[in-house]
Amino acid sequence: MTRYLILAEGFSADPHYGKTMRGVLRYRREDVVAILDSERAPGDTEDGVPVVRTLEEALPFEPDTALVGVATQGGRFPPAWRDLLRSCVEHGLDVENGLHEFISEDPELRDLAARHGVELRDLRRPPAGVSTATGANLDVQATIVLAVGSDCAIGKMTMALELDLEARRRGISSVFVPTGQTGIAIAGWGISVDAVVADFIAGAAERLVIEGAARGGELLWVEGQGAILHPVYSGVTLGLYHGSVPHLLLLCHEAGRAEMEGVGGGPHPIPRLRELVELHERLALPARPARVAAVALNTRNLDEVAARAAISAAEDETGLPADDPVRFGAGKLLAAFSV
Amino acid sequence: MTRYLILAEGFSADPHYGKTMRGVLRYRREDVVAILDSERAPGDTEDGVPVVRTLEEALPFEPDTALVGVATQGGRFPPAWRDLLRSCVEHGLDVENGLHEFISEDPELRDLAARHGVELRDLRRPPAGVSTATGANLDVQATIVLAVGSDCAIGKMTMALELDLEARRRGISSVFVPTGQTGIAIAGWGISVDAVVADFIAGAAERLVIEGAARGGELLWVEGQGAILHPVYSGVTLGLYHGSVPHLLLLCHEAGRAEMEGVGGGPHPIPRLRELVELHERLALPARPARVAAVALNTRNLDEVAARAAISAAEDETGLPADDPVRFGAGKLLAAFSV
Q1: Which domains does chain A have, with CATH numbers?
Q2: Which of A9, A129, B120, B133 could pair with B206 as two cysteines, CB 3.0-4.6 Å apart?
Q3: What is the pLDDT of residues A141-190, one digit of tens each?
Q4: Nearest-neighbour CA in chain B from A322: distance (Å)
C-alpha cells in the first residue's frame, strides 16, 4: 500500500487545477496521508485529510510517495516546484508526477534519486512501442463506452469511474480504462494519450481498449479527454474517439456552463447539448458507428431542486436519459448502457 | 544549394510511400541529383532524374545530402535502412530524415556523423518550446486557409503549394505554411505537427500561422494532415484545424476514391463530399467560423474527359467551385479565396 503525500502547492482549494488531487482523494482516499499547500491555514483539511504547509510538517504522517497533485496548463513545472521535489527526494520519498515535464529525465533529480534510493515515476511517460493504430481495436470483444464532454475538467473521468463502480457492484465484468495521469494514478495502469507523439494518439487508445478487454472487461469505460470543440485539446479528443472505437458514448456536461474555461483568445461558447450529440455521432468512424446513450450532468454548483430541473431539461433537449451519477447514483445512467 | 540524393529504397515507383520524394521532385527538382532504389532497372529515371541502384552508383552525381524520401506507416526505419544510412554518412553526406524515428538520437549514427563531419537533420523533430495553444492564433492578421481532405495522401500539400504559387505569381503576399516533413523539406521551415506531444498539436499549429504572418503572409496556405474521419490520423487533423484557426477551407479529394487507403480493420468508406463540407464547417471553433470555399480534385487516374466530368459533378454536389489545380491550373480555385 502506498502512503501518499499529495503536492498541491497553491492549488489544493482549486477544483480546476487540483484535478489529480481530487481524483485520488475520491477514489484512493485510504492511500493518502497528507496534502501539502503552504497557502492554506494551519489545521485545514480536505475530505478529512490534513493539509500541511511544509514538507517537515508532513513527515510525521510517514508518507512514502509524493504525488504531484496539480495539472498546470502545458504540463510544465513552475520553478519553485523544483526545490520541493528535491526536498521530497532528499527525505526518501518516491515521486509520482503526471505533468508533461518528466522528472525522470531531469539529470539533477535523477542523480539525487539514485543517491537516495527512491523512484521517480512519470505517469504520463508513454510506454515503449506505442505506434499508429492498426485496426485491431475493431476486433476487441467488449462493449466499449467512451466518455466525451462539452469542455475539459467537467467530470468525465469521475462519471466513467462511477459507472464502472456501479456496474461492478452489479456483477458486470466492467473495467475503467485510464487515458490520463489522474486515471492512471487511481487505477494503476493506462496510457496518458495526451503525451504520446501526435500521430500515435489513436494507436495508444487502441492499445488501451485491447488491454481493457485482456483485463477481463466485457464492458469498458474509457476515460475521456478534452472536448471535440476545445481550441487546445480537441486533437487528443478525436484521436482518442477514433482509436478507442466506442459503440456507445456518455456525453458529460456541467449544468450551467456556457463557455469553455481556462482558454485564451476570447469567449469559446459551448454548443447546445443537442448539437453536441449530433456532432459526436456524425464523427464516428463509418466502420464503427456510435451513438450517445446518455447524458451525465455535473450539478455541483446547483441546489437539489435546480439540479433535478437541469437533469429534466437535458432529457427534454436530447431525448436521452440524463442524471448526475455522483449526486444521485449511477443506476439510471447504467441502465442506458445495458447490452 | 543542396545536392540531394533521394533515398527511396523499394518505393521510388510507389505514389503513396514515395510522398516526400515526389514532393521534393516536383517543387525542388533543381536540387535533386539522383534517386536511390535497388529494385529499379538500370537506366531508369523519375521526372528526368537518374535512378541508381547503389550508393556507389550515386557518387559520380556528387550528392551532398541524402534525403529519406519515403514515409512508412508509423514512421520507423526498416532494419535494412540502417546500413544504407551508415554508408551515406561514411561517404560524407549529410542526412535529412522525415520519419518519426530520429537519426540524430541514434548513438551509433551520431558518433559516425561526428567522425565524418556531417549533419543529421530530423525534419520531424519539434522545435524547443512547443506547448499548448494560447489563443494568440486568433490575433494573426492574415487570411488563413487550411487544406483538408477526404483521406491521407490525396494531394493536400500539392494543392496548397499550387495555390500559393499561383497567388504569388499574381503578386499576392502569399505564404505556404508547412506542417509535415515533406512540406518542411520543400519550404525549408515549419513544424511536423504529427510529431509533437499530442497535447501540443494545436499549439504547434498556432505557432506556425503566427510565423507565416511574420514571414509576410497576408494569405496563408496551411498544409493539411490526415482526414477528419481517418481512423489513424484524425487527431492530428482536428488539432491542426483548431490550432491554425482557418477562415476558409480547401477541401481536397481524389476523384473516384471511395475508401481510405492503407488502413487496417476493414473497409473505411469516404463520406460524400457534401457531407464532408458540412462536417468540416460544423467542426469550426465557434470563435472562428470557417467555410469550405472550394474543392480541389485530384484527377490523376482519369483521362481528361472523365476529369472534367468529375469536376462538374463535384461542383453540382457541393455548390462550390471545383477544379484540379495541378492539371488545369490554380486560377479558378484561387478566385474562390479572393478576399
Answers
A1: 4-122 (3.40.50.720), 136-335 (3.40.50.300)
A2: B133
A3: 999 999 999 999 999 999 999 999 999 999 999 999 999 999 999 998 99
A4: 25
